[in-house]
Write a structure and sequence with these properties.
MFS_Sugar_Transporters; transmembrane helix; Growth Hormone, Chain: A; transport; mainly alpha; two-stranded antiparallel sheet
Length: 504
């Protein structure tokens, strides 16, 4: 296999982590409203009753703020494939940074709630595209043996963004200027995309995108800089990897990549559905609802003032550490195994949390409320270590280069749609049915985990080009002649392809 002789360099690691500033942008911006909702000065400025007071109008504004952000994310997921394929991964990152910066300025400068909502919508477009392009790019520049570890930096930096948003909210709580309390957190959304935009000229273009666009000399130069093998002074390993990529792209170019082909060709359709399913299932654990409304959840457990903000900050700090741990071991234990364990663990912890809220929520029972806090932390232990970063890694690996932007975009669309559904109704659901809303995040993962365990394909250790063989695609075999392939479709699938006009 081409990837077995290829190792990474510190330059490669540095590039992967620098681009992950986009991941931080997604995490910080997605989470910042959760901390703003914990600041009474925000509600006072816009003449809204305090969060958690049970008033329908405030709940509607909270739901609309997160709902419009997710709605913008849907547009971002649909737009990103054309942007990334037409202009390249690097140029796409630069354009997305501009969207994130301008929409953040609009939010921080808001003088009317509508202005804030518009800013959140466009910020949702930008951050969703960032959530697609970063793991996509990282997967295309990472060697197979450590791809999980490197792409896992996306999930890690996403949660670091959550964490710094939480500490920002905690620090802002003590600000003496009421407007500074909530405007500063929103303004800080500018920092990460601005740094990424300024440093992006130093980032190399994806070698796979360069090969796909017949810029072979540039692509090989990038590969030689990114990858090397011990003692390989002539970069033979990188050249072999480049030839493998080029030959596979030549095979892929003979295939139909239209929407019709994606729908009708079994190997493509399966991957698109798998990516969407993974992200939707991950959100169906309730993770984003718990994250965005955690301050309100703590209020329901009888905790007020700065304490909910401090607990939320510690929660996201723990989650960031666990994402790092998960990314360190995923190349050893495998994607599907870790995802299955994580989903099952989340179900158990949400069940316990629901029981604590149902029994002790709104009471003064310190032991019961303490266990309520404990199970929130236990929940993120499973989610952070086994689901969060791993889900992004898996989705970024599933697709051939020619469909990777579309495929990862469609996968993240599953996350955004689930987030839109769950967060839009969350404030009203907590007001009207309380702890029973948790049942949604118990039933769906219970049904989904067995499907994940028994029907999803493991991808660890393979190059992106070799993964296609797992789905029945023709894959170039570098030890054979250029016309020989491995992973040919079974006869039954070849027949199906012929029936719909798809030639392999």
């Amino acid at each position: 296999m081409a990837g077995e002789a290829v190792t990474t360099t510190w330059y490669n690691v540095g590039i992967v982590f620098f681009v992950a500033l986009g991941s931080f942008t997604y995490g910080f911006n997605s989470s910042i409203m959760g901390t703003v909702f914990g600041l009474s000065s925000f509600f006072d400025y816009f003449n809204l009753p305090q969060a958690g007071s049970g008033t329908g109008y405030t709940s509607s504004i909270e739901g609309a703020t997160n709902g419009l952000y997710s709605a913008g994310g849907i547009f971002g997921c649909l737009l990103i494939s054309r942007l990334a394929d037409a202009f390249g991964r690097k140029r796409a990152v630069q354009l997305i940074c501009i969207i994130c910066i301008l929409s953040a300025i609009l939010q921080a400068a808001s003088v009317h709630i509508v202005m804030l909502l518009v800013g959140r919508f466009f910020n949702g477009i930008g951050t969703a595209m960032m959530c697609v392009i970063v793991p996509l790019y990282q997967s295309e520049v990472s060697p197979p043996s450590v791809r999980g570890r490197l792409v896992g930096s996306h999930g890690f930096l996403v949660v670091v963004g959550y964490n710094l948003a939480a500490f920002t909210g905690l620090g802002s709580y003590f600000a003496t200027n009421p407007q500074l309390q909530w405007r500063l957190p929103l303004a800080l959304q500018v920092v990460a995309p601005l740094v990424l935009a300024l440093g992006s000229p130093m980032v190399p273009e994806s070698p796979r995108w360069l090969f796909e666009n017949h810029r072979n000399t540039e692509a090989m130069e990038v590969l030689c800089n990114l990858h090397s093998a011990p003692g390989d002074t002539d970069s033979n390993a990188a050249h072999a990897e480049g030839e493998h990529i080029r030959q596979q792209l030549a095979i892929d170019d003979t295939q139909d990549h239209s929407l019709r082909a994606i729908i009708l060709r079994p190997s493509y359709r399966k991957r698109f559905l798998m990516g969407f399913y993974i992200q939707f299932l991950a959100q169906s654990t309730g993770v984003l609802v718990i994250n965005n409304y955690q301050v309100i959840l703590y209020n329901g457990l009888g905790l007020f003032g700065y304490l909910p903000l401090l607990l939320y900050a510690m929660y996201t700090l723990w989650a960031a550490f666990l994402n790092w741990v998960g990314s360190m071991v995923v190349d050893r234990f495998g994607r599907v195994r870790m995802l299955t364990i994580g989903i099952i663990g989340c179900v158990l912890m949400v069940s316990c949390e629901a029981a604590m809220v149902a029994t002790y929520g709104g009471t003064s029972n310190k032991i019961g409320n303490g266990f309520g806090v404990f199970f929130l932390f236990a929940f993120v232990t499973f989610y952070g270590s086994c689901v969060d970063a791993v889900s992004y890694i898996y989705c970024a690996e599933l697709f051939p280069t020619s469909l990777r932007a579309q495929g990862v975009g469609f996968s993240i669309l599953g996350q955004v749609i689930a987030s839109l559904i769950y967060t839009l109704i969350a404030p009203t659901a907590f007001d009207q049915v309380g702890w029973r809303y948790y049942l949604v995040f118990i039933v769906l993962p219970v049904v989904g985990a067995p499907l994940l365990h028994f029907f999803f394909i493991e991808t660890k250790g393979l190059s992106l080009e070799e993964i296609g063989a797992l789905f029945g695609d023709h894959v170039f075999n570098e030890s054979a002649t250029p016309v020989d392939f491995v992973g040919a479709l079974p006869a039954s699938e070849e027949k199906k392809g012929a029936e719909v006009g798809i030639s392999d």
